């Protein structure tokens, strides 16, 4: 279904098939990438996106098919081969060396040398030149780790240019960026595109794909669904092609948010004047039984910092917290757990899942921690709890003895959720529970949260996807620049209204 | 058969069996156990008795390694507890009385406990890297022990003290009884309660465990306290064995042997899942190897080389690359075709 | 064309020039601290004893610790990649006794010297291969190296062997003097090793790869650097330094002794860490390690001047090390909480 354009394909992959033991990861997939275009590769986890990219970057060898770069057939056996063919990749976790200087990172491996060794003056001069050609003016002597992730990513892109990349692959480049930084990144990407570089863009953020891409290729279950120019593919159709089923169930979830909330008694949690020097300005919020309070704001606005204070992961300097009407001091996660507060961190890999324990052990960890180390949970009880939650959340594969590291991101998130639900909390705090997981699992998790809230659980819910927040929450706390700027009633707020409120400096709460 | 081979303890147990068989083949009297005066004697009994200090230290080391740490100070702590115990006995008016000896031993163990708290504080509270934190005590500790003994090798004559390392409880060497009791206590505490699983969680992912409500700090603290205390007891057994406090030789290199025992037993140095049974077998392997070397008439000077080769063989056997190559070779010889693809290992994207 | 300037870090009260300096050179702070401690020690000792900073004492400081200097250079390479080498003390002993034995057997020094250095390199190669190709933890792999080298040393000889050969002894007995300052070839060798090490680390692609691997091994690999070869080579370098140090020590003491260097690896690691290299890898300077060795040597000298037992040396080094890491920890705590 590809529309012929006048640009010749830089990368022509035909009939790519890759098999792993027991899994057909890619099944006869074609993929075309043209010079001077931004091409988005879309699909759920397990659809084959990352496998296709690894084939193109020399990480995986292909079982059958061909790869042609700029008219020449190529076989990539190492990542070096792909780089030499002009294919550069910038990964989600910026793959540079944080302990080295910016200039050195740009030129590493290609430093200008003389008979007296590396010529550092030239290194920094060259690096500055490459950075400037992307519009970046940095102190090349400064250490890479002293810059934000957004800047580090741009440095990684400069490095790609040093290597004369004709293909630039951006793998989830915006996960850690706020709006301004995304704009910056996209401006650089557009410049590169206009200069003839072919850019392959992979992202879960549908909004951003629609902002930057020219064409979209959709994969599902290892097969090619199709390649479309952006303007011929509205969002609803794209999602349907990706998950192969209707998204009407998301509408059903919205409906449950209309339920009435009893706000007469003491709230499950009330925070007054909560603040931490240098980290968070004064915040006031409360959550009632059966209510979902959403926290909306850009990255860096302080959402995670706020909930970490509520949970005791960090200590507040000022303010007080009341649980069920009693003033308490939540000074550690342990305290919070004892007060039946649960917290699912946004970084599930390093702060959620215990990778080398089994699914079952991960699920009972919260319960066990609460009970203390002396009273061990008997295996009969453990089995019952584990199977109950695995089935109610739809964890796949349904094998409690499997190591947690082998699950997909979506299923790992479900396991973390199961861990907390098993402790029968009265308040559940979820920080970006749907980030980086496939659309089907996203829907599952949102449905579960709505269901639990209707049964009386109090929930605090953070998500960068504002529609999710609007869909699930009754009230929304809006954050900006580490301060609370408002409290909105979601029933009377639209997506545009919320975005507008977040962007403009209007004060006061509306609820 | 392959299911048996996949069991964690398969390789350690096989190694041990292989060693025992080797010994018996070369010198059949190796496995001979004699009974004299209602007490057991023989090479296997010697191994069990001599392994006690290493066993205690290795148990503590297992717990510390499980929390993703390491304790390099155990040898120094052994020296200190021996020095304290013997100095008290030496300075007392009744070195032969049980009361004095018990008090001296209690003092030695108490000091070792305190050093365990010290290490735990550095690692769990100040969050200093374990290798450096315990290196401090390793360096300074021997000096401290030397100061306690005044630079001499303090010797004493004391029947109660001698009993610890050389005496028998019924028909079994007392030192071995101590080791068995320690193993039992550690195993029960770790596996009958949830402490073992929680320790594994902390070792695999300390931050996630903390956020899940686990008392990570307490668990790490406890591991170092256990390690120190067990080393203290080991130091007393060692001193009882030579009836002297030798600050330089006590526990020399024992931390390295203990780490080796833990690794031989299948626990990873990276922390997380650990195996007490594995460590016990690891200690027995090392002790048996020691005896083997002696029995085979290898001069004790050559012992380190033998150990080096053993270490190399063991790590090679445990190495995933060797497993992969072996599997590929086996497959090729069976089917005659190219090896099937496996997940590429090095580059993780 | 868009123009982008890097973000200013919010809320910093420091003047711009200090901030620039910190963002560029924060890894130098521990080394500066080591230098400061060295100077404080020297000045303090001078004030206390009155005749501490003399040409003789300073020259001895270098020569008595020449072998440690060489070992520290090799260890720096290994630690910067995030590894560790526990075998250096044993390699020191092995090469020393081997050298002595061969010379005593009449083999020509022109053969013996390169051979002993090669033996050190070989041990390093074994460790490097274990670490890189068999995924063995550096701790365990170098532990194997420790046992192997020590064992081989015992096999060569259980007792010390004197070196009579004047060609080798010349290395220590010859003195080049300028006034009361003197230096011997062993000292020159040590300084040369330091200079070459520093040069390689700063001015060669290999050296920069060493830093890259220590900073992030996976990134270095994805950036196209030859990580495998580098990881093996740093152990070979450490082993070679071990061999050279063995030679120097044998010349210095006039004999080879198989029980040399027991525990020396700890002294070397302590010196390297005090000199500003982080055990986690990625930062560190060869010159810093040199300062660390001088700090160690000064403490040793002060203790012998005081007439105290030598065991106090280890205790002091231990406490100094502790002070260093606690301070480093506090600094890290502070900067993390300000984020």
Mean pLDDT of chain C: 85
Shape of chain C: globular
- Strand neighbour order, sheet with most strands of chain C: 2-5
Largest sheet of chain C: 2 strands, antiparallel
Low-confidence stretches of chain B: 337-349
Number of domains of chain B: 2
Structural class by secondary-structure content of chain C: mainly alpha
> Judging by the overall fold, what is the CATH architecture of the largest domain in chain B?
Orthogonal Bundle
Largest interface: B-C, 49 and 46 residues
Let me know the largest β-sheet of chain B: 2 strands, antiparallel
- Distance linking N and C termini of chain B: 36 Å
Report what the structure shows:
Chain A contains 18 helices and 23 strands. Chain A has 511 residues and is α/β, with parallel strands linked by helices. The longest helix of chain A has 16 residues, at 179-194. In chain B, helix 2 packs parallel to helix 14 (276-295), helix 4 (52-66) runs antiparallel to helix 14 (276-295) and helix 6 runs antiparallel to helix 7. The longest helix of chain B is centred in the first third of the chain and has 28 residues, at 98-125. Mean pLDDT of chain B is 84; it is low at 337-349. Chain B folds into two domains: 7-297, ABC transporter involved in vitamin B12 uptake, BtuC; 302-337, no CATH class. A two-stranded antiparallel ribbon of chain B has the order 1-2. A two-stranded antiparallel sheet of chain B has the order 3-6. In chain B, strands 4-5 form a two-stranded antiparallel sheet. Chain B has helices spanning 2-6, 10-26, 43-50, 52-66, 74-91, 98-125, 130-148, 159-166, 174-192, 195-204, 206-211, 216-242, 254-264, 276-295, 303-318, 320-335, and strands at residues 33-36, 39-42, 154-155, 168-169, 172-173, 244-245. Chain C has a domain at 54-261 and 276-285. Chain C has helices spanning 16-25, 29-49, 55-64, 66-80, 88-104, 109-133, 138-156, 166-173, 185-203, 205-215, 217-222, 227-253, 264-274, 286-306, 311-337; strands at 4-5, 161-162, 176-178, 181-183, 255-256. In chain C, the strands form two sheets. A two-stranded antiparallel ribbon of chain C has the order 2-5. The longest helix of chain C has 27 residues, at 227-253. Mean pLDDT of chain C is 85; it is low at 1-12. Chains in contact: A-B, A-C, B-C. Chains B and C meet through helix 7, helix 13, helix 15 and helix 16 of B and helix 7, helix 11, helix 13 and helix 15 of C.
């Amino acid at each position: 279904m590809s529309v012929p354009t006048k640009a010749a394909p830089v990368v022509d992959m035909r009939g790519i098939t890759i098999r792993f033991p027991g899994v057909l990861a890619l099944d006869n997939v074609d993929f075309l990438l043209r010079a001077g275009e931004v091409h988005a590769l879309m699909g759920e986890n397990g659809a084959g996106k990352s496998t296709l990219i690894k084939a193109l970057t020399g990480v995986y060898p292909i079982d059958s098919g061909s790869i042609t770069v700029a008219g020449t057939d190529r076989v990539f056996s190492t990542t070096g081969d792909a780089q030499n063919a002009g294919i550069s990749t910038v990964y989600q976790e910026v793959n540079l060396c944080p302990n080295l200087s910016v200039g050195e990172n740009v030129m590493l491996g290609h430093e200008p040398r003389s008979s007296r060794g590396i010529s550092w003056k030239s290194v920094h001069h060259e690096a500055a030149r490459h950075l400037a050609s992307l519009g970046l003016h940095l102190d090349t002597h400064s250490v890479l780790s002293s810059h934000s992730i957004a800047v580090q990513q741009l440095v990684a892109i400069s490095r790609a240019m040093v290597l004369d990349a004709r293909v630039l692959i951006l793998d989830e480049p915006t996960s850690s960026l706020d709006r301004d930084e995304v704009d910056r990144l996209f401006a650089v990407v557009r410049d590169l595109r206009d200069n003839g570089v072919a850019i392959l863009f992979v992202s879960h953020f549908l909004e951003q794909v629609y902002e930057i891409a020219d064409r979209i290729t959709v994969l599902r279950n290892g097969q090619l669904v199709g390649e479309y120019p952006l303007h011929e593919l509205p969002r609803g159709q794209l999602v349907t092609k990706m998950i192969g089923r209707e998204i009407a169930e998301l509408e059903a979830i919205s409906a449950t948010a209309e339920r009435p909330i009893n706000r007469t008694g003491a709230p499950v949690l009330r925070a007054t004047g909560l603040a931490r020097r240098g980290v968070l300005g004064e915040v006031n919020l409360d959550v009632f039984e059966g209510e979902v309070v959403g926290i909306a704001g850009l990255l860096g606005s302080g959402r995670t910092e706020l909930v970490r204070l509520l949970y005791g992961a960090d200590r507040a300097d000022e303010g007080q917290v009341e649980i069920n009407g009693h003033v308490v001091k939540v000074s550690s996660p342990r305290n919070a757990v004892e007060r039946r507060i649960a917290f699912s961190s946004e970084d599930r890999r390093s702060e959620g899942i215990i990778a080398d324990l089994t699914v079952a052990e991960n699920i009972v960890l919260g319960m066990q921690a609460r009970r203390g180390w002396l009273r061990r949970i008997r295996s009969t009880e453990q089995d019952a709890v584990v199977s109950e939650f695995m089935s109610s959340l739809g964890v796949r594969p349904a094998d409690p003895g499997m190591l947690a590291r082998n699950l997909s991101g979506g299923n790992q998130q479900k396991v973390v959720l199961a861990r907390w639900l098993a402790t029968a909390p009265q308040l559940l705090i979820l920080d970006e529970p749907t980030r980086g997981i496939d659309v089907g699992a996203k829907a599952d998790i949102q449905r579960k949260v709505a269901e639990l809230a209707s049964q009386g659980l109090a929930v605090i819910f953070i998500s960068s996807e504002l529609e999710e927040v609007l869909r699930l929450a009754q009230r929304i706390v809006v954050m900006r620049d580490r301060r609370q700027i408002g409290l909105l009633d979601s029933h009377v707020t639209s997506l545009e209204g919320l975005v507008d409120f977040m962007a403009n400096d209007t004060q006061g709460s509306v609820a | 058969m392959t299911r048996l081979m996949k069991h964690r303890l398969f390789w350690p147990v096989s190694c041990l069996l292989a060693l025992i068989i080797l010994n018996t083949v070369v010198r059949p009297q190796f496995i001979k156990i004699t009974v004299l005066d209602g007490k057991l004697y023989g090479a296997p009994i010697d191994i069990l008795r001599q392994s006690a200090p290493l066993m205690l230290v290795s148990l503590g080391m297992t717990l510390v390694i499980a929390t993703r740490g390491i304790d390099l100070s155990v040898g120094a702590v052994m020296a200190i507890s021996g020095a304290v115990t013997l100095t008290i006995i030496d300075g007392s008016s009744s070195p032969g009385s049980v009361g004095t000896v018990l008090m001296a031993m209690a003092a030695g163990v108490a000091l070792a406990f305190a050093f365990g708290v010290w290490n735990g504080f550095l690692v769990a509270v100040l969050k200093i890297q374990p290798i450096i934190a315990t290196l401090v005590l390793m360096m300074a500790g021997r000096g401290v022990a030397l100061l306690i003994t005044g630079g001499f090798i303090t010797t004493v004559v004391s029947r109660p003290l001698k009993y610890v390392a050389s005496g028998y409880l019924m028909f079994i060497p007392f030192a071995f009884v101590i080791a068995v009791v320690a193993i039992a206590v550690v195993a029960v505490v770790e596996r009958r309660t949830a402490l073992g699983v929680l320790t594994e969680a902390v070792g695999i992912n300390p931050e996630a465990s903390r956020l899940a409500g686990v008392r990570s700090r307490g668990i790490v603290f406890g591991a170092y306290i256990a390690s120190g205390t067990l080393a203290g007891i080991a130091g007393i057994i060692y001193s009882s064995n030579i009836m002297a406090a030798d600050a330089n030789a006590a526990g020399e290199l024992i931390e390295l042997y203990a780490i080796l025992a833990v690794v031989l037993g299948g626990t990873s140095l990276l922390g997380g899942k650990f195996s007490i049974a594995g460590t016990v077998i690891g200690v027995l392997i090392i002790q048996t190897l020691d005896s083997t070397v002696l029995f085979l008439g290898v001069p004790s000077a050559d012992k380190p080389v033998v150990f080096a080769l053993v270490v190399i063989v063991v790590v090679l056997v445990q190495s995933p690359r060797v497993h992969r190559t072996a599997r590929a070779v086996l497959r090729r010889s069976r089917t005659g075709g190219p090896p099937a693809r496996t997940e590429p290992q090095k580059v993780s994207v | 064309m868009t123009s982008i300037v890097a973000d200013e870090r919010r809320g910093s009260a420091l003047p711009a020039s200090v901030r620039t300096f910190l963002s560029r050179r924060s890894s130098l702070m521990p080394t500066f601290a080591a230098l400061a401690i060295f100077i404080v020690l020297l000045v303090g000792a001078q004030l206390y004893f009155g005749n501490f900073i003399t040409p003789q004492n300073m020259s001895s400081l270098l020569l008595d610790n020449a072998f440690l200097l060489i070992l520290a250079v090799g260890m720096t390479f290994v630690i910067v990649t995030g590894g560790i080498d526990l075998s250096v003390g044993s390699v020191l002993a092995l090469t020393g006794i081997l050298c002595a034995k061969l010379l005593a057997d009449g083999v020509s020094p022109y053969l013996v010297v390169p051979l002993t250095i090669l033996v050190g390199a070989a041990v390093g190669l074994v460790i490097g291969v274990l670490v890189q190709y068999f995924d063995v933890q550096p701790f365990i792999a170098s532990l194997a190296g420790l046992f192997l080298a020590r064992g081989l040393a015992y096999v060569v000889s259980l007792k010390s062997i004197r070196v009579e050969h004047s060609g080798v002894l010349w290395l220590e007995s010859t003195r080049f003097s300028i006034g009361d300052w003197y230096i011997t070839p062993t000292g020159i060798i040590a300084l040369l090793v330091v200079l070459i090490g520093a040069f390689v680390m700063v001015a060669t692609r290999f050296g920069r790869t060493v830093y890259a691997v220590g900073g992030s091994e996976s990134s270095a690999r994805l950036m196209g650097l030859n990580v495998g070869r580098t990881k093996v080579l740093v152990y070979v370098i450490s082993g070679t330094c071990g061999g050279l140090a063995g030679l120097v020590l044998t010349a210095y003491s006039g004999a080879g002794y198989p029980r040399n260097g027991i525990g020396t690896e700890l002294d070397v690691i302590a010196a390297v860490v005090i000199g500003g290299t982080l055990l986690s890898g990625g930062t560190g300077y060869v010159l810093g390690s040199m300062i660390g060795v001088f700090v160690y040597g000064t403490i040793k000298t002060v203790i012998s001047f005081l007439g105290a037992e030598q065991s106090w040396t280890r205790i002091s080094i231990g406490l100094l090390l502790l002070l260093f890491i606690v301070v480093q920890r506090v600094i890290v705590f502070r900067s993390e909480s300000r984020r």
